[in-house]
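Render Amino acid/polyamine/organocation transporter, APC superfamily in 3D.
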Amino acid sequence: MDSHNNQLRRGLDERHMHMIALGGAIGTGLFYGSATTIQMTGPAITLAYLIGGVVIFFIMRALGEMTLAEPVSGSISHYAGRYIGPFAGFLAGWTYWFMWIIVGMAELTAIGTYFQYWFPSVPQWVPSLVALVLMTLVNLLHVKAFGEFEFWFASIKVFAILAMMGGGLLLIFGPIDHGSTSTGVDNLFAHGGFMPHGWKGFLLSMVLVFFSFGGVELVGMTAGEAKNPLKSIPAAVNKVIWRILIFYVGALTIMLMLYPWNEIGTKGSPFVMIFDQIGIPATATILNIVVITAALSAFNSGLFSTSRMLYHLGLEGQAPRIFTKLNKAHAPQRGILFSSLLLSVAVVLNYLVPEKVFLYISSVATVAVITSWALILLTHLRFRKANRTTAFNMPFYPYSSYFALAFLGIVVILMAYVDSTVIALIVAPVWYLLVFVSYHVRQRIATKREKPAATS
C-alpha cells in the first residue's frame, strides 16, 4: 500500500459483519427470483435450496479458512494469486468484480419491478436510476456508513421474514381468518405433486437457486476492513447454513403452504403476491417495502465489493493505479464511480427490454458466481497442500471440496438446457478470452516498462 493515508480503514464492527453476511444471503434471488424457480419445479424448490445450501456451506468454509489465515481486502483474488498463480489472481479478481456488476444490474432491475406494484405507469428504469445514485453516494462515505446502512437494511429483512413466517403459520394453523383460500400442508403435494415437473424441472431450477446464493462470500471481501476478523469471520461463516434453512427453506415452505404453487406468477415478488391475493393488502404493501430494502441492500453490498476489488487489483498491479486512490473518507472513490458508470447499463436495459432483463442478467451472473466459487475451492485445495491450516478447518476436506466442485460443474451443464440461461454460456467464453488477452497485454506493458528501468 502506498501510505497510511491511502489505506482502507478497519471500521466494521462484529454486528456489521454478521448483518453483511446475512444480507448477502438474502436478496433478490429469494424475494423475486424464487417466483421463477417455483414455476420450474413446484414445491420441490425447497429441496433444491437445501441441497444448494449444503454446497454453499462448504464453499464458505473454504473461504473462511483462508480468510482467517490472511484477512485482507480483495481476498478471493489475493488467495488465488498467491496459491495458484498471477493469472489465477487476475481472473478471480476481475471475474468477481464482473459478477457483482451483473448482480448489481439484477438488483436494480428488481427495484424497478417492485415499484411497479404501486406505480404501474412509472417506467421501470426510473426507480432503478434513483437507487443507483443513492447507493453511490452512500458508498462514497466512510466504510462505517456502509456498515450502518447494511446493518439496518439486513435487520429490516430479517425482522420482516421472521414476522412473515410467524404470520403465515398463524394463517395456516392458527385462529386468523384467511378467507376462502385453501391453505395447509396439502398445497405442497396437491396440484401435480411435490415435484410436478419431475427431475428435469428440479435440476434445471438449480441454476437460479445458485444465483440466489450469490453474495454469501461477501464476508471475505470485508475482512480487510473488519475490526476483529479473527472473531467475526468464523461466527458469520458458520451461521450460513442456518440462514439458508430458515430464510430460504423455511420461508418458502410456509409461502407454498399458504397458496398453491401453480397460481404464483412471475411478475413481482411471490411474497408480496401471496399476501395480496389472500386478502391482506396492507401486509403486501409492507412486504413490498421490505423487498425494495432487500434489493437496495444487495446492491449496496455489490457496489462495495466492486470498488474494493478494483482497489486490491490496483495495488497488485492488475488494474490501473488510479483505483487505489482514496477520498477523505478513505473510500475508493474512483472504483465506486467507475463501477456505478457500468451499472447504469442496467437502467438502459430496463428501458429497452424490461420484461426479459432480469432472467438475462441473472443467467450471466450465475456463470460469474460459479467461476468465483470454483476458484475459491481450487485455491483452497492448493492452500491446504501448502500446509496452511487454521483452527477453522473445512469439514470433510478434501471430499467436500470435490463434491462442491462437481456440483458447480453440473449446474453449468444444466444451463445449456434453459432457454433464458443459454446466453450466459455464450458470454462466459467471451469474458474468459477478454480476461486472458487483458492479462497478457498488461504483462507485456509491464515488461517493457521494466527494461528501460533496468538499463538506466
